[in-house]
Amino acid sequence: MSPKALTPLLNVTDLHKSFGTNKVLRGIDFSVRSGEVLALIGPSGSGKTTALRCLNGLESPDSGVVSFAGGPEVAFQPGLPAKKAQVLRDRSAMVFQGHHLFPHLTVLQNVTIGPLQVQRRPREEVMARANELLERVGLEQKSSDYPSSLSGGQQQRVGIVRALMLQPDLLLFDEPTSALDPELVGEVLSVIKELAQEGWSMVLVTHELAFARDVADTVVFMDDGVVVEHGPAAQVLGNPTHERTKAFMQRLL
Ligand code: ADP
After folding, report:
1. Rounded to whole angstroms, what are the CA distances from 184 to 126, 152, 179, 189?
2. Residue 1: is its pLDDT beyond 50?
Protein backbone atom coordinates (compact mmCIF):
# COMPACT_ATOMS: atom_id res chain seq x y z
CA MET A 1 0.00 0.00 0.00
CA SER A 2 1.36 3.43 -0.88
CA PRO A 3 2.15 5.88 1.95
CA LYS A 4 -0.60 8.13 0.60
CA ALA A 5 -3.15 5.44 1.26
CA LEU A 6 -2.20 5.34 4.92
CA THR A 7 -2.89 9.00 5.59
CA PRO A 8 -6.12 9.28 7.58
CA LEU A 9 -8.77 11.49 6.02
CA LEU A 10 -12.03 10.87 7.84
CA ASN A 11 -12.96 9.34 11.15
CA VAL A 12 -16.50 8.47 12.13
CA THR A 13 -17.06 7.55 15.75
CA ASP A 14 -20.13 6.11 17.43
CA LEU A 15 -22.80 7.82 15.33
CA HIS A 16 -26.33 7.51 16.61
CA LYS A 17 -29.40 8.78 14.83
CA SER A 18 -33.10 8.23 15.40
CA PHE A 19 -36.07 9.46 13.46
CA GLY A 20 -38.74 9.52 16.16
CA THR A 21 -38.67 6.06 17.69
CA ASN A 22 -36.89 4.56 14.69
CA LYS A 23 -33.25 4.02 15.73
CA VAL A 24 -31.59 4.20 12.32
CA LEU A 25 -27.92 4.44 13.37
CA ARG A 26 -26.98 2.63 16.57
CA GLY A 27 -23.28 3.39 16.95
CA ILE A 28 -21.47 3.52 13.63
CA ASP A 29 -17.66 3.62 13.43
CA PHE A 30 -15.43 3.63 10.39
CA SER A 31 -12.58 5.57 8.89
CA VAL A 32 -11.38 6.49 5.41
CA ARG A 33 -7.77 7.03 4.38
CA SER A 34 -6.66 9.40 1.70
CA GLY A 35 -7.12 7.74 -1.70
CA GLU A 36 -9.33 4.99 -0.29
CA VAL A 37 -12.58 3.88 -1.90
CA LEU A 38 -15.00 2.62 0.71
CA ALA A 39 -18.26 0.93 -0.32
CA LEU A 40 -21.15 0.96 2.15
CA ILE A 41 -23.41 -2.00 1.48
CA GLY A 42 -26.33 -3.61 3.26
CA PRO A 43 -30.05 -4.27 3.07
CA SER A 44 -32.48 -1.50 2.25
CA GLY A 45 -33.31 0.47 5.38
CA SER A 46 -30.10 -0.48 7.21
CA GLY A 47 -29.06 3.18 7.54
CA LYS A 48 -26.47 3.53 4.75
CA THR A 49 -27.84 6.73 3.22
CA THR A 50 -28.39 8.28 6.62
CA ALA A 51 -24.79 7.50 7.58
CA LEU A 52 -23.53 9.01 4.33
CA ARG A 53 -25.59 12.17 4.80
CA CYS A 54 -24.15 12.61 8.31
CA LEU A 55 -20.64 12.84 6.81
CA ASN A 56 -21.71 15.85 4.81
CA GLY A 57 -23.82 17.69 7.38
CA LEU A 58 -27.03 16.98 5.45
CA GLU A 59 -28.22 14.98 8.43
CA SER A 60 -27.43 15.79 12.03
CA PRO A 61 -26.80 12.71 14.18
CA ASP A 62 -28.01 12.66 17.78
CA SER A 63 -24.50 11.84 19.00
CA GLY A 64 -21.09 10.79 17.75
CA VAL A 65 -18.17 12.49 16.08
CA VAL A 66 -17.35 13.14 12.42
CA SER A 67 -13.83 14.43 11.98
CA PHE A 68 -11.71 15.23 8.97
CA ALA A 69 -7.93 15.30 9.18
CA GLY A 70 -6.96 18.95 9.49
CA GLY A 71 -10.54 19.79 10.53
CA PRO A 72 -13.32 20.27 10.97
CA GLU A 73 -14.32 17.93 13.75
CA VAL A 74 -17.97 17.95 14.74
CA ALA A 75 -19.07 16.33 17.99
CA PHE A 76 -22.81 15.93 17.70
CA GLN A 77 -25.22 16.36 20.57
CA PRO A 78 -28.93 17.08 20.83
CA GLY A 79 -29.69 20.70 20.03
CA LEU A 80 -26.46 21.32 18.11
CA PRO A 81 -27.20 24.18 15.68
CA ALA A 82 -27.50 22.99 12.06
CA LYS A 83 -24.72 25.40 11.08
CA LYS A 84 -22.21 23.42 13.14
CA ALA A 85 -22.82 20.35 10.97
CA GLN A 86 -22.64 22.36 7.76
CA VAL A 87 -18.93 23.05 8.24
CA LEU A 88 -18.41 19.45 7.14
CA ARG A 89 -19.68 20.38 3.70
CA ASP A 90 -16.43 22.11 2.77
CA ARG A 91 -14.53 18.83 2.83
CA SER A 92 -16.82 16.56 0.84
CA ALA A 93 -19.26 16.66 -2.06
CA MET A 94 -22.28 14.46 -2.59
CA VAL A 95 -23.51 12.82 -5.78
CA PHE A 96 -27.16 12.01 -5.20
CA GLN A 97 -29.31 9.11 -6.34
CA GLY A 98 -31.20 11.30 -8.76
CA HIS A 99 -29.11 14.01 -10.32
CA HIS A 100 -30.59 16.99 -8.40
CA LEU A 101 -29.63 19.46 -11.15
CA PHE A 102 -31.24 22.89 -11.41
CA PRO A 103 -33.71 22.56 -14.34
CA HIS A 104 -33.58 26.25 -15.27
CA LEU A 105 -29.77 26.35 -15.56
CA THR A 106 -27.63 25.01 -18.38
CA VAL A 107 -25.15 22.21 -17.80
CA LEU A 108 -22.30 24.73 -17.55
CA GLN A 109 -24.24 26.94 -15.15
CA ASN A 110 -25.16 23.93 -13.02
CA VAL A 111 -21.55 22.91 -12.51
CA THR A 112 -20.16 26.43 -12.00
CA ILE A 113 -22.77 28.04 -9.75
CA GLY A 114 -21.29 26.55 -6.54
CA PRO A 115 -17.65 27.47 -7.22
CA LEU A 116 -18.60 30.95 -8.45
CA GLN A 117 -21.34 31.99 -6.05
CA VAL A 118 -20.62 30.00 -2.91
CA GLN A 119 -16.86 29.47 -3.07
CA ARG A 120 -16.30 32.77 -4.91
CA ARG A 121 -13.44 31.43 -6.99
CA PRO A 122 -12.13 33.33 -10.03
CA ARG A 123 -14.44 33.00 -13.03
CA GLU A 124 -11.71 32.21 -15.54
CA GLU A 125 -10.29 29.36 -13.50
CA VAL A 126 -13.76 27.94 -12.76
CA MET A 127 -14.82 28.02 -16.43
CA ALA A 128 -11.59 26.39 -17.57
CA ARG A 129 -11.94 23.61 -15.01
CA ALA A 130 -15.63 23.08 -15.88
CA ASN A 131 -14.86 22.71 -19.56
CA GLU A 132 -12.01 20.32 -18.82
CA LEU A 133 -14.18 18.11 -16.60
CA LEU A 134 -17.18 18.15 -18.96
CA GLU A 135 -14.86 17.04 -21.73
CA ARG A 136 -13.49 14.27 -19.55
CA VAL A 137 -16.95 12.79 -19.02
CA GLY A 138 -17.82 13.22 -22.71
CA LEU A 139 -20.26 16.11 -22.30
CA GLU A 140 -18.36 19.01 -23.83
CA GLN A 141 -21.04 19.32 -26.54
CA LYS A 142 -23.78 19.61 -23.94
CA SER A 143 -22.58 22.53 -21.87
CA SER A 144 -25.24 24.95 -23.18
CA ASP A 145 -28.06 22.41 -22.92
CA TYR A 146 -30.62 22.18 -20.15
CA PRO A 147 -30.82 19.06 -17.96
CA SER A 148 -34.22 18.00 -19.35
CA SER A 149 -32.68 17.41 -22.78
CA LEU A 150 -30.09 14.96 -21.40
CA SER A 151 -30.40 11.24 -20.73
CA GLY A 152 -30.38 10.05 -17.11
CA GLY A 153 -26.81 8.85 -17.49
CA GLN A 154 -25.69 12.19 -18.91
CA GLN A 155 -27.47 14.02 -16.09
CA GLN A 156 -25.73 11.85 -13.54
CA ARG A 157 -22.35 12.56 -15.18
CA VAL A 158 -23.14 16.28 -14.85
CA GLY A 159 -23.90 15.60 -11.18
CA ILE A 160 -20.46 14.04 -10.80
CA VAL A 161 -18.76 17.01 -12.50
CA ARG A 162 -20.69 19.35 -10.23
CA ALA A 163 -19.32 17.50 -7.19
CA LEU A 164 -15.75 17.51 -8.58
CA MET A 165 -15.97 21.25 -9.26
CA LEU A 166 -16.22 21.87 -5.53
CA GLN A 167 -12.68 20.49 -5.09
CA PRO A 168 -13.66 18.22 -2.20
CA ASP A 169 -11.26 15.96 -0.37
CA LEU A 170 -13.90 13.25 -0.26
CA LEU A 171 -16.57 12.28 -2.78
CA LEU A 172 -19.79 10.81 -1.45
CA PHE A 173 -22.00 8.75 -3.77
CA ASP A 174 -25.52 7.81 -2.71
CA GLU A 175 -26.64 4.92 -4.93
CA PRO A 176 -25.52 6.87 -8.00
CA THR A 177 -26.98 4.43 -10.50
CA SER A 178 -30.15 3.22 -8.82
CA ALA A 179 -32.42 5.73 -10.60
CA LEU A 180 -31.02 4.87 -14.03
CA ASP A 181 -32.30 2.58 -16.74
CA PRO A 182 -30.06 -0.51 -16.84
CA GLU A 183 -28.45 0.43 -20.17
CA LEU A 184 -27.24 3.75 -18.68
CA VAL A 185 -25.63 2.31 -15.56
CA GLY A 186 -22.33 1.38 -17.21
CA GLU A 187 -21.44 4.88 -18.43
CA VAL A 188 -21.81 6.29 -14.91
CA LEU A 189 -19.95 3.44 -13.22
CA SER A 190 -17.06 3.82 -15.63
CA VAL A 191 -16.66 7.50 -14.71
CA ILE A 192 -16.66 6.58 -11.02
CA LYS A 193 -14.11 3.84 -11.65
CA GLU A 194 -11.82 6.28 -13.44
CA LEU A 195 -12.02 8.68 -10.51
CA ALA A 196 -11.17 5.84 -8.15
CA GLN A 197 -8.16 4.91 -10.28
CA GLU A 198 -7.02 8.53 -10.22
CA GLY A 199 -6.84 8.34 -6.45
CA TRP A 200 -9.98 10.20 -5.39
CA SER A 201 -11.10 9.31 -1.88
CA MET A 202 -14.70 8.20 -1.86
CA VAL A 203 -17.51 6.66 0.13
CA LEU A 204 -20.01 4.92 -2.07
CA VAL A 205 -23.40 3.60 -1.02
CA THR A 206 -24.17 0.98 -3.60
CA HIS A 207 -26.13 -2.16 -4.29
CA GLU A 208 -23.85 -2.95 -7.25
CA LEU A 209 -21.75 -5.59 -5.53
CA ALA A 210 -19.75 -6.52 -8.63
CA PHE A 211 -18.84 -2.87 -9.00
CA ALA A 212 -17.92 -2.60 -5.31
CA ARG A 213 -15.65 -5.62 -5.71
CA ASP A 214 -14.06 -3.99 -8.74
CA VAL A 215 -13.37 -0.50 -7.37
CA ALA A 216 -13.57 -0.54 -3.58
CA ASP A 217 -10.56 -1.03 -1.34
CA THR A 218 -12.74 -1.48 1.70
CA VAL A 219 -16.29 -2.63 2.27
CA VAL A 220 -18.48 -1.81 5.25
CA PHE A 221 -21.52 -4.06 5.60
CA MET A 222 -24.30 -2.43 7.61
CA ASP A 223 -27.42 -4.06 8.93
CA ASP A 224 -30.06 -2.62 11.21
CA GLY A 225 -28.07 0.51 12.06
CA VAL A 226 -24.76 -1.13 12.97
CA VAL A 227 -21.56 -2.01 11.15
CA VAL A 228 -21.57 -5.79 11.03
CA GLU A 229 -18.40 -6.29 9.00
CA HIS A 230 -15.63 -3.96 7.84
CA GLY A 231 -12.59 -5.05 5.90
CA PRO A 232 -10.83 -5.36 2.55
CA ALA A 233 -13.35 -5.57 -0.29
CA ALA A 234 -12.18 -8.98 -1.49
CA GLN A 235 -12.56 -10.44 1.98
CA VAL A 236 -15.95 -8.96 2.93
CA LEU A 237 -17.48 -9.67 -0.48
CA GLY A 238 -15.68 -12.91 -1.26
CA ASN A 239 -15.34 -14.53 2.12
CA PRO A 240 -17.55 -12.83 4.70
CA THR A 241 -17.18 -14.01 8.27
CA HIS A 242 -20.49 -12.90 9.75
CA GLU A 243 -23.72 -14.82 9.25
CA ARG A 244 -25.67 -11.65 8.47
CA THR A 245 -23.23 -10.69 5.71
CA LYS A 246 -23.36 -14.20 4.27
CA ALA A 247 -27.17 -14.18 4.30
CA PHE A 248 -27.23 -10.78 2.55
CA MET A 249 -24.86 -11.97 -0.17
CA GLN A 250 -26.83 -15.16 -0.67
CA ARG A 251 -30.08 -13.25 -1.13
CA LEU A 252 -28.45 -11.37 -3.95
CA LEU A 253 -27.14 -14.41 -5.80
P1 ADP B 1 -30.59 2.62 3.48
O2 ADP B 1 -29.80 3.68 2.80
O3 ADP B 1 -29.74 1.56 4.07
O4 ADP B 1 -31.69 2.04 2.63
P5 ADP B 1 -31.72 4.79 4.99
O6 ADP B 1 -30.62 5.46 5.73
O7 ADP B 1 -32.20 5.42 3.73
O8 ADP B 1 -31.31 3.28 4.74
O9 ADP B 1 -32.98 4.64 5.92
C10 ADP B 1 -32.92 3.98 7.18
C11 ADP B 1 -34.23 4.20 7.92
O12 ADP B 1 -34.36 5.57 8.24
C13 ADP B 1 -35.47 3.83 7.13
O14 ADP B 1 -36.35 3.19 8.02
C15 ADP B 1 -36.01 5.15 6.69
O16 ADP B 1 -37.41 5.11 6.56
C17 ADP B 1 -35.61 6.07 7.82
N18 ADP B 1 -35.41 7.46 7.38
C19 ADP B 1 -34.43 7.91 6.57
N20 ADP B 1 -34.52 9.25 6.41
C21 ADP B 1 -35.59 9.64 7.15
C22 ADP B 1 -36.20 10.91 7.42
N23 ADP B 1 -35.72 12.04 6.88
N24 ADP B 1 -37.26 10.95 8.23
C25 ADP B 1 -37.75 9.81 8.79
N26 ADP B 1 -37.22 8.59 8.59
C27 ADP B 1 -36.16 8.49 7.79
Report:
1. 28, 7, 10, 9
2. no
- pLDDT per position as a tens digit, 166-182: 999 999 999 999 888 88
User: Considering the entire predicted model, what is its pTM?
Assistant: 0.94
Residues 6+ apart with CB under 8 A from 178: 97, 207
Q: How far is the CA of 86 from the centre of ligand 1 (A)?
A: 20
- Please tell me if the CB atom of residue 47 comes closer than 6 angstroms to any atom of ligand 1: yes
Cα torsion angle, 188, 68, 222, 23, sign: negative
Give the ipTM: 0.97
Assess whether pLDDT exceeds 90 at residue 86.
no
CA distance linking residue 166 with residue 169, whole number of Å: 9
Q: Best of 18, 46, 50, 60 to mutate for ligand 1, by most ligand atoms within 8 A of CB?
A: 50
Residue 162: CB atoms within 10 A of its CB come to 25
Q: Which of 88, 87, 112 is nearest to 102 (CA)?
A: 112
Give the side-chain half-sphere CA count within 13 A for 180: 25
CA of 45 to the centre of ligand 1 (A): 6
